[in-house]
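Q: What does the predicted 3D structure of Tetratricopeptide repeat-containing protein look like?
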Amino acid sequence: MTSFRTVPALRPFVAACLLAAAFAAPAMAAAKSDDDTVELTSLAGIFLAARVADETKDVTHGAEFYQQAYEADPSNAAWLERAVVLTTAQGDLKTALPMAKILVKKAPDSQIASFIVTADLLRQKKFAASIKTLQGNDQGALAALTATLLKAWALTGQGKTDEAIALVDSLEGESWYEPFKLIHAGLMADVAGNTEDSLARFAKAYEQDGNSVRVVEAYARELARAGDKDKAKEILQEYLDRAPRNPLAIDTMADIESGKPVTQAVNTPVEGAAEALSGLGTALGQEGGFELAAVYLRLALYIDPDSGGGLAALSLGDILDSNGLGDQAIQVLEQIPTQSPFRPVGILRAAVVLAQQDRIDEAKKAFEEAIRKNPDDLAAYIAYGNMQRAKEKYEEAADIYSRAIEQLDKPVRGNWTLFYFRGVAYERAKQWPKAEADFKKALELFPDQPLVLNYLGYSWVDQGVHLDEALDMIQKAVDLRPNDGFIVDSLGWAYYRLGRYEDAVEELERAVSLETADPVLNDHLGDAYWKVGRKLEAQFQWRHARDLGAKLPELEVINRKIAAERLVDSAPRITPSPEAEQDSSRTKAAKPISFSKPADQTSGAR
């Protein structure tokens, strides 16, 4: 979710506005001691460590090193600016503010320093002082828009709303200014009580960008405040038809339907300033910016911790996580205020990051909170179940998917993944009858879904049941995804299990050419080569599977084949029994075999 849809024309300005390091120096490894501190004995060492931090986007250490560099050479304003930028980007405004104030005096043209100091003044409602700090720092497209919006909100705080709106209207330049100008001038007019003007501006903004939830929210709230709740609910419903689970739109609809007085999205000049920084920071982040996007969003949250109902924190969390700063992302997301509309989404995303970091107990707590706050959000159950399944907690995963399925009034096509995921969990938990029922239900909801066709067909072949139907299903999956090496491997291995070794070689060779780094596929090909007499090639494939990182229990069997220089413990050829054909739910699987089940590609298992 974002405050404003990305403006493509902003892209050329991102690179120009991002603050680069003061100097270009070759990246060199900084020596670290056992306690993860860097031994720095000279200014050159400090600077080189700072440059390494720049290269690796390590804002925490970078901020520390540039602070040390500046302390060693106080005449270097460029190092101070880097320290200010990185310290703000990591959220340490307590340290950044004093440095920014020094930088404003040393380098009055430092735009980032003036914006940081201005944000602090606006937070304290020192509107006249904030305007003074902004003087002369509007050079460049992004700086001009930033300075104009912040100054206009400061004027609004002084009761000079007409002057503020006139200032915004007078800003000329880039086409991507327009959505920001319309929404902020409309919000300023609303703060001043000019409903007619604000409605006209919001309507125009909606015409230009009806996909922005902040534009939709502001327009709907103003319509409701003007007495037109029917139209307000109509535009909200149109948006929710496109984005059914958007928390801000849902929260706005609930406010309008409650019968209570409806407030606007922004109700004070301070909130307006935070909204300006949040919207610009989000747009920068969408276009690939990191440091400056993080600075803007940190400032927005410093001014208003609930900016955008948690939207600013959500945007910052995404940016931090995508740049490898998972710990900081978790901290930001977990600090979204409890009653904010985006709190459940933020906690869910924090849970996903925790799971990626293997902090399972913390992730469980976060997933449970996200589900408790928003029990209808199927994405939370799916992410939670997938985490448990990835940890081979198959029964627990199945229980979580079941909780999600219980929320469904009537399953629809889009719910096929729930039954598929639960089927995988049941199959891995050796509860085949339940798994088979779920795979069939998934196909009922989404006929010809290739992943389900592949998994169910493969399982039937593995068990020696419904062989004709199973092969047809796998072949259909291959036809639907001809370039999916894992599904092609399923067809090849099915042929192998049925004793059709030449057909198996053909398909398995194609699978390996499509998916070159999966050891299971190479192991399968090696077995098939052995069966058709290509013994040297078989040994090569087994060794290749080993070297690609095959895991237990497959690795143990692969090593035995390599040592014996022959096929051992091979999966047996299938000989189906009439009884098995009649009722696959009572079929005993073939004896343990040395290969994995089909890839669960939607969850990234392979």
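A (community wiki): The structure tokens above were generated from the sequence. Confidence is low (pLDDT under 50) at residues 1-40, 576-606. The radius of gyration is 30 Å.
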